[in-house]
Amino acid sequence: MQELMQKRKEQLAQATITQLRRRGFEAEWFDTAAQAREAALQLLPEGCTVAWGGSATIREVGLTQAVHAGNWTAIDRDLARTPEERADLHRRGLLSDWYLMSANSFYCKPQSEEYFADAGFYKFHEAYHLLKFNDERQILKKAYYEYSEMRKNKEFLRRKFGESKS
User: Fold this and answer.
1) Which long-range contacts (CB under 8 A, 24 or more apart) does 70-79 make?
2) pLDDT per residue over 9-23, tens digit each?
3) What pTM does this model have?
4) Fewer CB atoms inside 10 Å of the end CB: C or N, the chain?
Protein backbone atom coordinates (compact mmCIF):
# COMPACT_ATOMS: atom_id res chain seq x y z
CA MET A 1 0.00 0.00 0.00
CA GLN A 2 2.86 2.36 0.86
CA GLU A 3 4.41 1.74 -2.55
CA LEU A 4 1.12 2.61 -4.29
CA MET A 5 0.83 5.86 -2.31
CA GLN A 6 4.39 6.81 -3.26
CA LYS A 7 3.70 6.05 -6.93
CA ARG A 8 0.56 8.22 -6.79
CA LYS A 9 2.51 11.12 -5.23
CA GLU A 10 5.15 10.86 -7.94
CA GLN A 11 2.51 10.86 -10.68
CA LEU A 12 0.81 13.92 -9.19
CA ALA A 13 4.17 15.63 -8.83
CA GLN A 14 5.07 14.97 -12.46
CA ALA A 15 1.69 16.29 -13.62
CA THR A 16 2.19 19.41 -11.50
CA ILE A 17 5.72 19.90 -12.82
CA THR A 18 4.44 19.64 -16.39
CA GLN A 19 1.81 22.32 -15.70
CA LEU A 20 4.33 24.59 -13.98
CA ARG A 21 6.75 24.30 -16.89
CA ARG A 22 3.97 25.11 -19.35
CA ARG A 23 3.43 28.30 -17.38
CA GLY A 24 7.09 29.30 -17.52
CA PHE A 25 8.19 28.04 -14.10
CA GLU A 26 11.17 25.85 -13.32
CA ALA A 27 10.14 22.86 -11.22
CA GLU A 28 11.76 19.75 -9.77
CA TRP A 29 10.67 16.72 -7.76
CA PHE A 30 12.66 15.45 -4.79
CA ASP A 31 12.24 12.12 -3.01
CA THR A 32 13.10 13.52 0.41
CA ALA A 33 12.78 16.72 2.37
CA ALA A 34 16.57 16.78 2.78
CA GLN A 35 17.08 16.73 -0.99
CA ALA A 36 14.59 19.57 -1.46
CA ARG A 37 16.20 21.61 1.32
CA GLU A 38 19.71 21.17 -0.10
CA ALA A 39 18.56 22.08 -3.62
CA ALA A 40 16.93 25.26 -2.31
CA LEU A 41 20.02 26.19 -0.29
CA GLN A 42 22.18 25.82 -3.41
CA LEU A 43 20.18 28.67 -4.99
CA LEU A 44 20.94 31.12 -2.17
CA PRO A 45 24.19 33.06 -2.62
CA GLU A 46 26.30 33.20 0.54
CA GLY A 47 25.85 36.35 2.57
CA CYS A 48 22.50 37.36 1.07
CA THR A 49 19.46 38.31 3.11
CA VAL A 50 16.64 35.76 3.17
CA ALA A 51 13.06 36.14 4.38
CA TRP A 52 9.97 33.96 4.01
CA GLY A 53 6.22 34.02 4.11
CA GLY A 54 3.91 31.73 6.00
CA SER A 55 4.77 28.56 4.10
CA ALA A 56 4.48 25.44 6.24
CA THR A 57 6.42 23.47 3.62
CA ILE A 58 9.63 25.46 3.93
CA ARG A 59 9.48 25.03 7.70
CA GLU A 60 8.71 21.30 7.51
CA VAL A 61 11.69 20.57 5.26
CA GLY A 62 13.98 22.50 7.62
CA LEU A 63 14.78 25.29 5.19
CA THR A 64 14.22 28.14 7.65
CA GLN A 65 16.39 26.45 10.28
CA ALA A 66 19.13 25.88 7.71
CA VAL A 67 19.05 29.56 6.69
CA HIS A 68 19.42 30.57 10.35
CA ALA A 69 22.35 28.18 10.76
CA GLY A 70 24.08 29.01 7.47
CA ASN A 71 26.00 31.95 6.05
CA TRP A 72 22.90 34.03 5.29
CA THR A 73 21.17 36.88 7.09
CA ALA A 74 17.72 35.62 8.09
CA ILE A 75 14.85 38.07 8.44
CA ASP A 76 12.43 36.05 10.53
CA ARG A 77 9.31 37.93 11.60
CA ASP A 78 8.33 35.02 13.86
CA LEU A 79 11.12 36.05 16.22
CA ALA A 80 9.61 39.50 16.81
CA ARG A 81 8.71 40.34 20.41
CA THR A 82 6.27 43.15 19.66
CA PRO A 83 3.75 43.88 16.90
CA GLU A 84 5.85 46.88 15.87
CA GLU A 85 8.99 44.74 15.56
CA ARG A 86 7.03 42.16 13.55
CA ALA A 87 5.78 44.86 11.15
CA ASP A 88 9.33 46.18 10.76
CA LEU A 89 10.68 42.69 10.04
CA HIS A 90 7.86 42.13 7.56
CA ARG A 91 8.80 45.32 5.67
CA ARG A 92 12.49 44.42 5.73
CA GLY A 93 11.64 40.94 4.49
CA LEU A 94 9.91 42.33 1.43
CA LEU A 95 13.18 44.04 0.49
CA SER A 96 15.36 40.99 1.13
CA ASP A 97 17.59 39.51 -1.55
CA TRP A 98 15.57 36.28 -1.51
CA TYR A 99 11.99 35.76 -0.33
CA LEU A 100 11.01 32.12 0.13
CA MET A 101 7.39 31.06 -0.34
CA SER A 102 5.25 28.31 -1.74
CA ALA A 103 2.16 28.13 -3.90
CA ASN A 104 -0.67 25.75 -3.11
CA SER A 105 -2.11 25.71 -6.62
CA PHE A 106 -2.06 27.41 -9.98
CA TYR A 107 -5.30 29.11 -9.18
CA CYS A 108 -5.73 31.57 -6.33
CA LYS A 109 -9.03 32.07 -4.57
CA PRO A 110 -10.02 35.69 -4.01
CA GLN A 111 -8.64 37.08 -0.79
CA SER A 112 -11.46 39.38 0.23
CA GLU A 113 -9.83 40.23 3.55
CA GLU A 114 -7.02 41.85 1.54
CA TYR A 115 -9.47 43.36 -0.96
CA PHE A 116 -8.33 41.27 -3.93
CA ALA A 117 -11.18 40.55 -6.30
CA ASP A 118 -9.10 38.03 -8.20
CA ALA A 119 -5.57 36.70 -8.12
CA GLY A 120 -3.50 34.42 -10.30
CA PHE A 121 -0.12 33.71 -11.83
CA TYR A 122 0.84 35.24 -15.15
CA LYS A 123 3.69 34.73 -17.56
CA PHE A 124 5.58 37.84 -18.59
CA HIS A 125 3.75 38.28 -21.90
CA GLU A 126 0.39 37.89 -20.15
CA ALA A 127 1.24 40.38 -17.41
CA TYR A 128 2.62 42.82 -19.97
CA HIS A 129 -0.71 43.03 -21.80
CA LEU A 130 -2.61 43.48 -18.54
CA LEU A 131 -0.74 46.61 -17.58
CA LYS A 132 -2.82 49.67 -18.21
CA PHE A 133 -0.28 52.48 -18.14
CA ASN A 134 2.77 52.92 -20.33
CA ASP A 135 5.10 53.62 -17.39
CA GLU A 136 4.08 50.32 -15.75
CA ARG A 137 4.79 48.48 -18.99
CA GLN A 138 8.21 50.13 -19.14
CA ILE A 139 9.00 49.08 -15.56
CA LEU A 140 8.04 45.47 -16.31
CA LYS A 141 9.95 45.51 -19.59
CA LYS A 142 13.08 46.87 -17.87
CA ALA A 143 12.84 44.30 -15.05
CA TYR A 144 12.39 41.43 -17.50
CA TYR A 145 15.29 42.62 -19.65
CA GLU A 146 17.56 42.85 -16.60
CA TYR A 147 16.48 39.39 -15.43
CA SER A 148 17.08 37.95 -18.92
CA GLU A 149 20.57 39.46 -19.07
CA MET A 150 21.42 38.19 -15.59
CA ARG A 151 20.17 34.73 -16.49
CA LYS A 152 22.05 34.72 -19.79
CA ASN A 153 25.28 35.73 -18.00
CA LYS A 154 24.59 33.27 -15.16
CA GLU A 155 24.57 36.18 -12.70
CA PHE A 156 21.01 35.70 -11.47
CA LEU A 157 22.10 33.50 -8.57
CA ARG A 158 25.09 35.60 -7.54
CA ARG A 159 23.92 39.16 -7.86
CA LYS A 160 22.19 40.81 -4.95
CA PHE A 161 19.06 42.86 -5.47
CA GLY A 162 19.87 46.56 -5.62
CA GLU A 163 23.53 46.25 -6.60
CA SER A 164 24.52 48.37 -9.53
CA LYS A 165 25.96 46.76 -12.63
CA SER A 166 29.68 47.24 -13.03
Assistant:
1) 70/41, 70/44, 70/46, 71/46, 71/47, 72/44, 72/46, 72/47, 72/48, 73/47, 73/48, 73/49, 74/49, 74/50, 75/49, 75/50, 75/51, 76/51, 76/52, 77/51
2) 888 888 888 887 887
3) 0.57
4) C
